Amino acid sequence: MKFYNFMTSQDSSVQLVDQAVLLFTLGEEKEAESLLVEYLSRHENDLSAWRALSEIRLSTKDFSAAEHACRKALSINPDDLTSNVSLARILVSQGDKEGAEEASSKARVLGWKDELAQDEHNG
Fold first, then answer.
1. Are 23 and 45 in contact (CB under 8 A)?
2. C-alpha–C-alpha distance, residues 71 and 49, integer Å
3. What is the DSSP letter of 79?
4. How many CA atoms lie within 13 A of 115 on its CB side?
5. Phi/psi of residue 79, each to 5°?
6. What are the start-end ranges of the H helices in the chain?
7. What CA–CA distances, in Å, run from 107 to 37, 56, 114?
8. Distance (Å, rounded) from C-alpha 88 to C-alpha 29?
């Protein structure tokens, strides 16, 4: 009997990011980062993987690399709330107060838009 794998690329992306997050949580930052970097070399438009890589690099204080990963996520979706919040945090860590304020302002506006959309949907 033949087994068919019906997992979509979206499913495999979620599993890989979840695996990287688990590795990171277990203190295996370098392994998590390597897993994501290798995956992103083949799937360069995976927003969730760029987000995860950015957060891992921020936590290891590799601010320049964290900013690069975060900006890559934002190039995929400039209106991604999570990435805008991350960018503000990264820029604060780098001492870029003006850039952090700009990213934070955009994140606030995106958050408000999201709240309004949810209110319309629920109302």
1. no
2. 13
3. T
4. 6
5. -100, 20
6. 9-25, 29-42, 47-59, 63-76, 81-93, 97-122
7. 26, 20, 10
8. 22
Task: Quote the pTM value.
Answer: 0.82
- Distance in angstroms (rounded) separating the CA atoms of residues 118 and 14: 24
- What would the two tokens of residue 107 be? 């994140």
CA distance 90 to 64: 9
Q: Mind listing the domains of the chain with CATH numbers?
A: 10-122 (1.25.40.10)
Plot region of 27 (φ>0 → left; ψ -120 to 50 → alpha; else → beta)? left
| Cβ–Cβ < 8 Å for 97, 85 | no
Could you give the CA distance from residue 83 to residue 50 in angstroms, rounded to a whole number?
9
- Model pLDDT for residues 39-76, shown as the tens digit of each residue: 999 999 999 999 999 999 999 999 999 999 999 999 99
Closest CA to 74 of 47, 92, 56: 47
To which H or E segment does residue 52 belong? helix 47-59
Identify the residue whose tokens are 């994140």.
107
